[in-house]
Amino acid sequence: MSDTAVPTVALTGRFADRDSWAAEGCPIDATISLVGARAVILLLREAFYGAHCFKDFVARAGFTEAVTAARLKELLNAGILELRPYQEPGQRRREAYYLTEKGLDLFPVLVALAAWGERWKPDGTAAASLVHEDCGAELKADVQCANGHHVNVSQASLRPVEGE
């Protein structure tokens, strides 16, 4: 297969010579460093599905208490989750986990993962779909520029940030 048949992102400016630079400071790498572990993604899924209590994260995501605690601590330290106090009647005060604005901004990432998984699921797997509550239509992951144009990989360019 020739390289011209495969859609890729156009590399421009100082990025045009792919062998002359390394992907240091890459935002994809920074994001994966925070949320790339399977346990983190599934805990985020549970947070988006309404889990707030530690025991609910353990039960619903299926990880040990130690793994769950470690990953939730990472999400707290990254500012993706925050703790809020709550108290059930007759119980001691506890803290619950809530998505921050930074965490809520990961929703399109989870929609994209879910859409990809639904499209490429192995035969025989149970299916679930994220849908728009008002009209029932499936949610889609879509790449758009700031002007609202839909963009595919062959229409995308990697360029240096102005001032660099």
Automatic annotation (TrEMBL):
<dbReference type="Pfam" id="PF01638">
    <property type="entry name" value="HxlR"/>
</dbReference>
<dbReference type="InterPro" id="IPR002577">
    <property type="entry name" value="HTH_HxlR"/>
</dbReference>
<dbReference type="GO" id="GO:0003677">
    <property type="term" value="F:DNA binding"/>
</dbReference>
<protein>
    <submittedName>
        <fullName>Transcriptional regulator, HxlR family</fullName>
    </submittedName>
</protein>
<dbReference type="InterPro" id="IPR036390">
    <property type="entry name" value="WH_DNA-bd_sf"/>
</dbReference>
<keyword id="KW-0804">Transcription</keyword>
<feature type="domain" description="HTH hxlR-type">
    <location>
        <begin position="26"/>
        <end position="125"/>
    </location>
</feature>
<dbReference type="InterPro" id="IPR036388">
    <property type="entry name" value="WH-like_DNA-bd_sf"/>
</dbReference>
<keyword id="KW-0805">Transcription regulation</keyword>
<keyword id="KW-0238">DNA-binding</keyword>
